[in-house]
């Protein structure tokens, strides 16, 4: 094999949400910027994550088409809707591609609370296709692209109950999904002290791979996809846990995190405390 794999990252910007913020403080109600990564060889390509809205998925499809590769696979890292609701648009554009995720991710998607899904869809009225496509379960732990391995890493509970990342050893690349954030406030609103410890351990697993490139599921637009984000994410989680143990009010905790991470984007109360 002489041709090496390459990758490109598409970042969809933050988008305004309709409705009231869960807490009456922080930035105007919005969804944070997200990423999708195309890994490609001479002829074929694999896309990681599919975005949220129709407009995002359509823009992503156009961007993928510019690479002039045969899109064989769309891999979904986990079951948050902003990572797979765009599948319908992408599969309409690339009908021979397969959409896959681990059995654990597919089970989480199928078990999603329909009432909560309706609430979340109501935050983006008219912006999501009505016929949502779910990925199919994929039982293997490796995806092959032009003879090279894309290895699935089971990460357990991070910002979602069942999270995964991808490791591409041939190019020292980790596509981390929402295990990793890059100067974007992290979704800790559904975490506990124990689950944050597991999240930190998941980041340790990524660091142990010694990647040259590390793509976060959510990032500050323009930030490089470097492994520095791994330690930064761990620092964020540890700092949040320390502050939460100190007995601060929600607003005091929120303000302290903003002061500690002043150059991080998406300082949203829902990211810190959830939607309830």
List the main descriptive attributes of the protein structure presented here.
276 residues; five-stranded mixed sheet; six-stranded mixed sheet; Metallo-beta-lactamase, Chain A; 8 helices
How would you summarize the topology of this molecule?
Elements: E1 6-12, E2 15-16, E3 30-31, E4 34-40, E5 44-48, H1 54-65, E6 70-75, H2 87-93, E7 98-101, H3 103-110, H4 114-122, E8 136-137, E9 142-145, E10 148-156, E11 163-168, E12 173-175, E13 181-182, H5 193-208, E14 213-215, E15 218-219, H6 228-245, H7 250-260, H8 269-273
Parallel strand pairs: 5-6, 6-7, 7-8, 12-14, 13-15
Antiparallel strand pairs: 1-4, 2-3, 4-5, 9-10, 10-11, 11-12
Describe the structure.
- With 276 residues, this protein is an alpha/beta fold.
- It has one domain (6-273): 4-Layer Sandwich (Metallo-beta-lactamase, Chain A).
- It has eight helices and 15 strands.
- It has helices at residues 54-65, 87-93, 103-110, 114-122, 193-208, 228-245, 250-260, 269-273, and strands spanning 6-12, 15-16, 30-31, 34-40, 44-48, 70-75, 98-101, 136-137, 142-145, 148-156, 163-168, 173-175, 181-182, 213-215, 218-219.
- Strands 1-4-5-6-7-8 form a six-stranded mixed beta sheet, with helices on one face. A five-stranded mixed beta sheet has the order 9-10-11-12-14.
- A hairpin with a 4-residue loop joins strand 11 and strand 12 (173-175).
- The longest helix has 18 residues, at 228-245.
- The radius of gyration is 18 Å and the shape is globular.
- The termini are far apart.
- The model has no long low-confidence stretch (mean pLDDT 96).
